[in-house]
Amino acid sequence: MREKILSAKKKFVALHGAKPPRKGRDRLPPGQTLSAGFPVLDLGIHPAFDPRTWSFSVEGEVANPRTWTWPEFSRLPQIEQVSDFHCVTTWSKFDVSWGGVQFKTLADIVLPGERARFVVCHCSDDYTTNIPIDDALAPDVILACKLDGAPLPVEHGGPARLVVPKLYAWKSAKFIRKISFVEKDDPGFWESRGYHSHGDPWKEERFSQTIVFSTPN
Q1: Fewest CB within a 10 Å sphere: which of 94, 128, 157, 217?
Q2: pLDDT tens readout for residues 40-67
Q3: How far apart, in Å, are the Cα atoms of 116 and each of 102, 119, 120, 216?
Q4: Which of these CATH numbers, 3.10.180.10, 3.90.420.10, 3.40.50.2300, 3.40.50.2000, describes 2-15+53-189?
């Protein structure tokens, strides 16, 4: 699995490392509008957080399935990263500052097997979403527990959410409690309702099929 992680790192550098960072409007994917604020969109459920009972698990096609309590999760190596955030509803926010645990840190611990090709995120509000493993292993993907240096507020998915900067924000699952490594793609909440299985904002991968909105006569 370490070879797979190294391969994913090399692929990420090959695709992105040699390119200068996008500036200004060049950072805005097609169809997006820059937002000064940070809108809140979710299923309308904000689960209560109790650090005494909270837990986070990684399971599935892994050698070492693990479950962490909140104190244990908080002691994992932490990083800070600044990235742009693109919502499928056509707004984007530049330079969002996150802090948390790199996804690849978790992968190094649980050691996904050769059959693991996707990850599925499970959340406290019963939300799910699916992500290809190569995207999940990108260096900027983290389990965020801080926003702008402060504990992640519940409206933005606290105490912990996934952040996948290169994909539309519905892939950055809020209130995350479990990640499963799986062999076959397993469409999540929005994917099973017509959203694209991948969700690349630069390719405008919003929907997997044509959706027609009709109005009453």
Answers
A1: 217
A2: 877 778 889 999 999 999 999 999 999 9
A3: 18, 8, 11, 46
A4: 3.90.420.10
